[in-house]
Amino acid sequence: MIQIFKISDELTKSLESVFEYVKTDEQLQCNLNKLYTFSAVQSNNLMNTKYISLLQELMHETNLNKEYELFHAHCIEYKVGGYQQEHVHPPDDLSFILYFDTEKTGSTILKFDNESLTVDQIRGNLLVFPPHIPHSGTTVETSKRIIVGALKIR
To answer: Is there a contact between 68 and 55 (Cβ–Cβ < 8 Å)?
Structure first.
């Protein structure tokens, strides 16, 4: 199941403040030396922060909360030249990416056996996909801010 949900402007704007919050809290910033993210600021898990209620609202707005439980979410803000290497998200049951910018740069590439799907970042779009699908992010030429999440079946 690959789906794209449109998140309300109000919720998108409320969640957007997480990027400034992470920049001011060094304990929330993740060490990227062992990850797939390059030239970016990434947070640790946001589940124990003041953003949990907004993340739960995201689940409710999409009706994903009826079948899934959110157990992990982190934000990434890419600098110019930043990118995401190909990776998967096991053992999650479902993964998502929420986009905060609209640029024809920093697209998400989902790879299948003989083909790929390119998803451009559009503000307020929530891409939901199975975690076993290899995916990557192309090089960012302007800016890219996302929240990445992991869901488990209830």
So the answer is: no
Neighbouring C-beta atoms of residue 111, cutoff 10 Å: 14
Q: In a structure prediction context, what are the per-residue pLDDT tens digits for the chain, which is 154 residues long?
A: 899 999 999 999 999 999 999 999 888 998 776 678 999 999 999 999 999 999 999 999 999 999 999 999 999 999 999 999 999 998 899 999 999 998 888 899 999 989 999 999 999 999 999 999 999 999 999 889 999 999 999 9
Token pair 């957007």 in the structure block, residue = 16
Say yes or no: domain 3-153 is CATH 1.10.3470.10: no
> In the numeric block, which tokens belong to residue 76?
């990434």
Give the orientation angle of helix 9-16 with respect to helix 52-62, to 10 degrees. 150
What b/e string do you get for 41-80 counting C-beta neighbours within 10 Å, with b at 16 or more?
A: bbbbebeebebeebbebbbebbebbeebebebbbbbbbee
- Give the torsion sign (CA, 32, 96, 10, 101): positive
**Nearest 5°: phi and psi at 37?**
-100, 130
User: pTM of the prediction?
Assistant: 0.95
Residue spans per domain, the chain: 3-153
Structure tokens given for 144: 């890219």
